[in-house]
């Protein structure tokens, strides 16, 4: 203590040296933060433009891009609308997407209102179950619906035996739309439910005080205020319906009902001598349609201030009393979850453990594990499982890293092109998966210096394509977490001498870890169930869950398909359970 007391005080010069801000090298007068920001812009722009530019260019030349001597032509568009029955394809796609959107909203909007605004019993449980179908691939759901509700399905045969006929048909546009709506309704539900939870209930409380009944309150106040999430989710569901491949392929191909995605699949993968110019023209049109939908969405919601209900003073919610009708709502939700998801998934799992699956005989008579034995003994099947896990794991990590860098560039920097980085990261959500795969197929074939040749036919091709599909979701999950971190932390670091890059590594990085882990898990789940982009990029050595199931289905091996589908569902459920456990209580993740 005496030594400390007699120690000479530090001079002002020494104090200045101790707290001198760090100095960073600036080669050619350019700071490292600007280098990183331009690098992020270049990477995301390259990833997004790589499949788009070759697709547009392929539509304008008379031969494949990998062949020399191509000349400019518009014959691809002419042939598309005169000889390829593309007009019928456009009509089928519009009807299918419209019906899917309507069915999804009919399911999602009432349930979102009932769960968040009424005295519905078990609302928390129903809010959780409503999200189940989101984690199931629409391809897997389609297999389950065929096995249970198809012409020879378990439920269909049982109903036919009782009533003499089956009152539904999956192999129609409404049948396709209903199955797809079951898979996409959770997306619309999440948007609508989150918007209702965040909105102020003062208007509804005022209506109740004035004597308005629950249904009048919902019709005149709640529904008009839900216009933004309804518009956003409906356009998102419509665009996803335009690009989906699984259900139209399973249901439409046997009865010659073509939509955009199956047209590309039939004229590309299944064609002996595909016309790449026509494929490029069709892909360009589909791309323009989906991008236009995003533009329309932005225009419709430009006056968002009209729908603001979250003010400085919040009002406690008084749940609307539905009376005896709440049990009707409970029945409606239970019907959707049980018949839409649980029965088809249960049918898949049971089919995976049986040799024959029919209501005419007890499944217990045909119990077997041969389907799983086949999956785990044939090298190609085992390899597809490992390929799926590798692609999902590596792709999720890489795209989450790119997403977190893009988020801090777009939302936490003075970079002049920050907004452009954000827009580019969100573009892939409007690019159909099969168009993305076809575009990367041409991009790898056309890439200089042998880069494309080295990537084509490898897992890296799938990681890039499927990862790009997951990039908008990763960006969207990281951005809200960053917005919750006050900018005063950045300012404090900058005052202390840290540049933009050091501020991220010393301050923001640690705070964003939970959100980053959440983005990785979300990306893993999305990439595990995604496959449409892999249709044009995979080969015998790079098959994944989705492409392998399609291959087995065309061979008529329903047992093996059910076994792989059951494994995919089990892996997804395990990952989601682990994520909930790891991120429990971390709401900003």
List keywords for this structure.
single chain, 589 residues, mainly alpha, MetI-like fold, 27 helices, 0% strand, disordered N terminus
Structure description:
The protein is mainly α and 589 residues long. The chain has a domain of 238 residues: MetI-like (MetI-like fold, Orthogonal Bundle). The chain has 27 helices and no strands. α5 runs antiparallel to α6, α18 packs antiparallel against α19 and α22 packs antiparallel against α25. The protein is globular, with a radius of gyration of 27 Å. It starts with a helix and ends in a 7-residue tail after the last helix.
Rounded to the nearest angstrom, the radius of gyration is: 27 Å
Mean pLDDT: 80
Secondary-structure-derived class: mainly alpha
Q: If classified by CATH, what would the architecture of one domain be?
A: Orthogonal Bundle
First and last CA, distance: 48 Å
Order of helices and strands: HHHHHHHHHHHHHHHHHHHHHHHHHHH
Could you say which overall geometry the principal axes of the C-alpha atoms support? globular
Would you count the extended β strands for me? Answer: 0
CATH class of one domain: Mainly Alpha
Strand content: under 5%
């Amino acid at each position: 203590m005496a030594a400390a007391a007699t120690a000479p005080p530090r001079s002002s010069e020494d104090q200045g040296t101790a707290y001198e801000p760090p100095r960073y090298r600036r080669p050619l007068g350019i700071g490292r933060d600007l280098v990183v920001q331009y690098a992020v812009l270049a990477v995301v722009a390259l990833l997004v433009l790589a499949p788009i530019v070759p697709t547009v260019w392929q539509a304008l030349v008379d031969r494949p891009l990998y062949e020399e001597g191509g000349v400019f032509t518009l014959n691809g568009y002419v042939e598309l609308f005169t000889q390829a029955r593309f007009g019928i394809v456009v009509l089928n796609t519009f009807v299918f997407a419209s019906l899917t959107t309507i069915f999804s909203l009919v399911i999602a909007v009432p349930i979102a209102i009932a769960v968040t605004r009424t005295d519905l019993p078990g609302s928390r449980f129903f809010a959780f179950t409503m999200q189940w179908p989101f984690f199931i691939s629409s391809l897997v759901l389609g297999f389950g619906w065929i096995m249970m509700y198809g012409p020879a399905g378990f439920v269909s045969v049982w109903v036919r035996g009782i009533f003499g006929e089956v009152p539904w048909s999956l192999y129609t546009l409404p049948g396709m739309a209903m199955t797809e709506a079951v898979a996409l309704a959770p997306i619309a539900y999440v948007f609508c439910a989150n918007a209702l939870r965040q909105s102020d209930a003062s208007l509804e409380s005022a209506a109740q005080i004035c004597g308005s009944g629950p249904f009048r309150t919902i019709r005149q106040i709640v529904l008009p205020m839900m216009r933004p999430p309804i518009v956003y989710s409906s356009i998102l569901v419509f665009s996803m319906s335009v690009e989906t491949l699984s259900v139209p392929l399973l249901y439409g191909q046997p009865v010659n009902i073509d939509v955009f995605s199956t047209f590309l699949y039939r004229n590309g993968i299944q064609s002996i001598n595909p016309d790449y110019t026509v494929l490029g023209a069709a892909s360009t049109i589909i791309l323009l349609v989906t991008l236009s939908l995003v533009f329309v969405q932005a225009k419709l919601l430009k006056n968002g201030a009209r729908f603001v209900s979250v003010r400085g003073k919040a009002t406690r919610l008084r749940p609307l009393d539905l009376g005896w009708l709440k049990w009707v709502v409970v029945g409606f939700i239970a019907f959707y979850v049980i018949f839409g998801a649980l029965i088809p998934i249960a049918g898949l799992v049971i089919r995976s453990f049986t040799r024959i699956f029919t209501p005419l005989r007890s499944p217990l008579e045909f119990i077997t594990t041969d389907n799983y034995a086949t999956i785990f003994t044939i090298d190609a099947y085992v390899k597809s499982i490992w390929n799926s896990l590798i692609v999902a794991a590596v792709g999720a990590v890489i795209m989450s890293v790119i997403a977190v860098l893009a988020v801090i560039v777009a939302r936490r920097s003075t970079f002049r092109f920050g907004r452009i980085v954000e827009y580019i990261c969100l573009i892939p959500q409007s690019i159909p998966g099969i168009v993305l795969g076809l575009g990367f197929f041409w991009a790898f074939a056309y890439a200089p210096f042998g880069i494309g040749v080295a990537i084509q036919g490898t897992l890296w091709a799938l990681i890039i394509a499927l990862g790009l599909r997951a990039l908008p979701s990763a960006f969207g999950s990281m951005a809200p977490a960053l917005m919750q971190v006050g900018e005063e932390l950045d300012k404090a670091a900058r005052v202390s001498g840290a540049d933009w890059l050091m501020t991220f590594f010393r301050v923001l990085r640690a705070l964003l870890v939970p959100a980053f882990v959440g983005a990785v898990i979300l990306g893993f789940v999305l990439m595990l169930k995604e496959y449409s982009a892999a249709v044009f990029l995979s080969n015998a050595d790079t098959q994944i869950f989705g492409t392998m199931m399609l291959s087995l289905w065309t061979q008529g091996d329903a047992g093996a398909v059910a076994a792989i589908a059951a494994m995919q569902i089990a892996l997804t459920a395990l990952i989601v359970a682990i994520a909930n456990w790891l991120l429990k209580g971390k709401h900003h993740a």
